[in-house]
Amino acid sequence: METLAILQAADLVKTFAGRRVLDGVSFTIRPGVITGLIGPDGAGKTTLMRLAAGLLVADSGSIHALGRDSTLDSLSVQALMGYMPQRFGLYEDLSVQENLQLYADLQGVPEPERAGRYQELMHMTGLAAFTGRLAGRLSGGMKQKLGLACTLVRAPELLLLDEPTVGVDPVSRRELWVIINRLVQEQGMSVLISTAYLDEAERCQEVILMHEGKILMQGAPDRLSAPMTGRTWAVTVLDKKLRDVQAELTGHVVDALVQGDHVRLVTAKNSTVEALRALPGLESAQIKAVAPRFEDGFIDMLRAKSSLRRTRLTDMPALNVAADSLPVIQVEQLKRSFGSFRAVDGISFQVKRGEIFGLLGANGAGKSTTFRMLCGLLPASSGSLRVAGLDLRVAASTARSRIGYMSQKFSLYGSLSVTQNLEFFASAYGLSGQARKRRLIWALDEFELEKQADQLSSDMSLGYKQRLAMACALMHQPEILFLDEPTSGVDPLARREFWQRISALARSGVTVLITTHFMEEAEYCDRLAIMAAGRILAMDEPAAIKARAQTLENPEPSMEDAFICLVQQATQMKDST
Amino acid sequence: MNNIRGGARMRLTALVRKEFLQIRRDPSSIAIAFLMPFFLLVLFGFGVSLDADHLPVALVAESPSLDTADFLASLEGSHYFAAHYARTMHEAEQDLRSGKINAIVHLRANFAAGLRQNDGTPIQLIVNGVDANTARLTQGYVQGVWANWLARRAQSRGQELQMPVQLVQRVWYNSEVKSRNFLVPGLVAIIMTLIGTLLTALVMAREWERGTMEALLVTPVTMTEILLGKIIAYFTLGTGGMLLSVGLAVWLFDVPLRGSFWLLLACSSLFLLAALGMGLTISTLARNQFVAGQVAIIGTFLPAFLLSGFIFDIDSMPSVVQFITHFIVARYFVSIVQTLFMAGNVWSVVLPNVLALALLAALFMGITWKKSRKRLE
Question: Which chain B residues are closer than 8 Å to A74 by Cβ?
Answer without folding.
Answer: 374
